[in-house]
Amino acid sequence: MTSPDTERFIADVLSRIGARGVTTAHDDLAPWLSDWRGRYHGAACALLSPASTEDVVAIVEESRRHRVALVPQGGNTSMVGGATPDQDGRAAILSLRRLNRIRDLSADAGTAIAEAGVILSDLHDAAAGIGCRFPLTLGARGSATIGGLISTNAGGTQVLRFGTMRALVAGVEAVLPDGQVYRGLAPLKKDNRGYSIDQLLIGAEGTLGVVTAATLRLVPAIVDRGVAWVGLESPHAALALLRRLERATDRIESFEIIPGDSLALVLDHIPGTRAPLAGRHAWHVLIEAVVTDTSGEAPARLLERLLADALGDGVGDDAVVAASEAQAEAMWRIRDSLSEAERAAGPAVQHDISVPVASMPDFMIDGVAAMERAWPGTHATAFGHLGDGNVHFHVRAPAGVDRDAWYATDAHRITAMVHDLVVAAGGSISAEHGIGQMKRDELARLGDPARLAALRAIKSAFDPLGLFNPGKLVPLAPSADAP
Amino acid sequence: MTSPDTERFIADVLSRIGARGVTTAHDDLAPWLSDWRGRYHGAACALLSPASTEDVVAIVEESRRHRVALVPQGGNTSMVGGATPDQDGRAAILSLRRLNRIRDLSADAGTAIAEAGVILSDLHDAAAGIGCRFPLTLGARGSATIGGLISTNAGGTQVLRFGTMRALVAGVEAVLPDGQVYRGLAPLKKDNRGYSIDQLLIGAEGTLGVVTAATLRLVPAIVDRGVAWVGLESPHAALALLRRLERATDRIESFEIIPGDSLALVLDHIPGTRAPLAGRHAWHVLIEAVVTDTSGEAPARLLERLLADALGDGVGDDAVVAASEAQAEAMWRIRDSLSEAERAAGPAVQHDISVPVASMPDFMIDGVAAMERAWPGTHATAFGHLGDGNVHFHVRAPAGVDRDAWYATDAHRITAMVHDLVVAAGGSISAEHGIGQMKRDELARLGDPARLAALRAIKSAFDPLGLFNPGKLVPLAPSADAP
């Protein structure tokens, strides 16, 4: 449904950025109106595809003039509906995909300047081409864009050593809701000129500005890795092992915990997988150590030495270090197949949560038990990034229930209870995926009042007209002049 | 001058936090009304010393009720007048020094929870007591407090490896201007519940809230260090050497550059110093490498090996690795005496600036030359943290000028020109010290308009009454309701 306002908006944008940047045909719009998992479906008056920062400024100026909201979108891989417009059809999708140049790349400086639409795997390739690495990766790397990764403060599997995007962004360029360009790309290691606008835009989900480019940290390329699999009796033993390793070396990049029954599911459902260890263990961890030069101890030798010591001291029950890349890949395949195996086992609700690392072992035991007690017949599982205090917390439906009915009735109440447990443990209801539209009400229900008031105050200060990704993350403060 | 408003405010605060927390006697107030370098002199109606976060809440509530502004103060070691009140005497100093408990300390978790008034050297000692290190240090460590270090995003001499406070703070507790307590101490490695309030408060100079406590990252204690001195022909050779070392190892914690004439000044003016190398060199670098376990190569051997390779390839002219702790201390004493030696050589204006690391060698040569050309008879020098893109940039007065007259006439214009050069090089007019009252006008003159508008919007959103450290960092937006 296109109202006269949006028609004039589209005509004015078209006159400023050209026809190639404006799509209104229904079939061309359709793929971008739903999230990739098909949970959220919206409508939009147009898909706008600027080719430059100046084009974005033009779009933002027209958006202000005509009071047409903008929904920024990168690779459309949000897990929380963060890039899907609402259903009234008056907003425009602002796609950053044409802003896809790597403006600069320097092994010496250890930085890349990438535009918002650069796809993560393309950045990986470019960095590798100069003997470097951008040390953040995740499943959607073939679609996810730098702008989206920044706007959601993405994490992934290498956070243990290098942190999330928040630690990897050295500078941001963005168009703010007032139409001004914030130019923060200079990679200054020390800069104390007031509040960090860079850090404010990281994780802001496009509600405070449109990220158009960023300066990113690169690190030396990996020259060798060691991968090990350890069987142990509890998450507490796993955390004790992690602490030992962290004291002994700073080469550990991954430390993933897997319950015995999740491993069994993988072995049952995923063809070609086999258990890395002979015996049965209640819990498992997958560890990866890497080096960036060959002058020191090989990472496989390092892991063998440290794990032999640990097992000798009773920390861990059995361990094996991959003897080849093929064995290492096979271990990672088990980890990467956990979600697929869980899905094959029946309908489940999944949660992306974090608690302080020190609290995680208790949470993994007590939280799972509390859920299964409260919801008889369900099966709860927690697995993933123990070292980040971030696990995937799945609750599988009782055997034989009707999938749709269960999702319609119990699933939301189960999620609310998981979130209550997380808050009681001092944790976060969104570790990695952000708030988007999916968790907005839960954030409002469970957020600390001081934090919520601060979020609303910032949103209202930056975007008093409410034109930047409305309906996501946080509502405007009540007094604000909504469109 | 105490007006009736402030009298009622003081009485109400006293009834809520007790007499021990309220000082109004002139002699007791005096030491806190000037900055430690004696450049700024203010007045205050009282010195308030809360003993708990709840006391701070009470003070903020009374501050709102009576419209009395608060000037947060920690160790009073600001370099930019950031903790000194203005001269009208209606504000109160809010001293955090009694909030000085270390609430928690864990080698396992690698964290400390310290209240705002904990002195940095006390935190160093506490961390050392559990085999850990808080990896940030600076000259004022015996006075500077955690709250002040956070509020100024302090840096120091170990930023190369561990970053500034921004990278070392895992969580913040603060009282916001609306009187609510923001409780963000839980050390969550992944947390995507919207804009980072922690990061917003870091470097905010007390203008957005009063930091009352923080969760800080600890790292393993150092067990061995190696210190080396290298003579080279240019800052470009120094940067080339740094890049080589960074590619070869991640053990380098300091990389300080010193011009030959600054070394000569130290040797002339500081008793007991001697040149580490026999020959004359145009430039020098001081390098420190550390290890936290003894299983690998000793850091002195590492430096010997890497420097021999570098010199063999023509990067660097001569080098010596300290053979003892005494030699290492003697090298550091030269570096630490540079400011004192510069002062002994005559009146100078100093600047705390940064540019991108890759631009620093040109800036050190061209910037110094431009200043000496524009101000005949002056002597300009740049030295310090090359690896952070942050040097001390001194301009010494022509020989024989009257000190006071020179400061009154030329100094400000010289500073403005240094700042212009920094901005032209894409740098920051405040690398480490913040803006405070000293650089506020320069920030307003030189700041990117989009950045300035964003700073003002945030300030007005958090502190619409303008009661938190008024006159520092950024003014309220014009429309705001000032007190």
From TrEMBL, chains A, B:
Record has Flavoprotein as a keyword: yes
Annotated keywords: FAD, Flavoprotein
Name of the protein this chain belongs to: FAD-binding oxidoreductase
Assigned protein family: Belongs to the FAD-binding oxidoreductase/transferase type 4 family.
Domain FAD-binding PCMH-type intervals: 40-221
Cell cycle is among the record's keywords: no
Coiled coil start-end: none
Any Pfam family hit: FAD-oxidase_C
